[in-house]
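Subgroup meeting minutes
Present: P.N., E.W., G.H.
Scribe: E.W.

1. P.N. recapped why we're keeping a running log of single-chain structure predictions: easier to compare across weeks, and new members can see raw inputs and outputs side by side.
2. G.H. added today's entry (67 aa).
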Amino acid sequence: MSATRMYRGRDKKIAGVCSGIAEYFGWDPTVVRIGWVVFLMVGGSGILAYIIAMIVMPERPDDYDDM
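Output recorded in log:
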């Protein structure tokens, strides 16, 4: 089941963006991270997109319940 709102995940490698996206869509975080690396290598716009997502996506609150 997906979360009702997209948050940066607690399973962080850098800022939790990929794990938050994976959690929202119910995907494996490793797949999202690999996709992000591919996105980075195709034109390099992945860095800018990651920074924007890191700023825009709020960190998950401590009292958040997944259900």
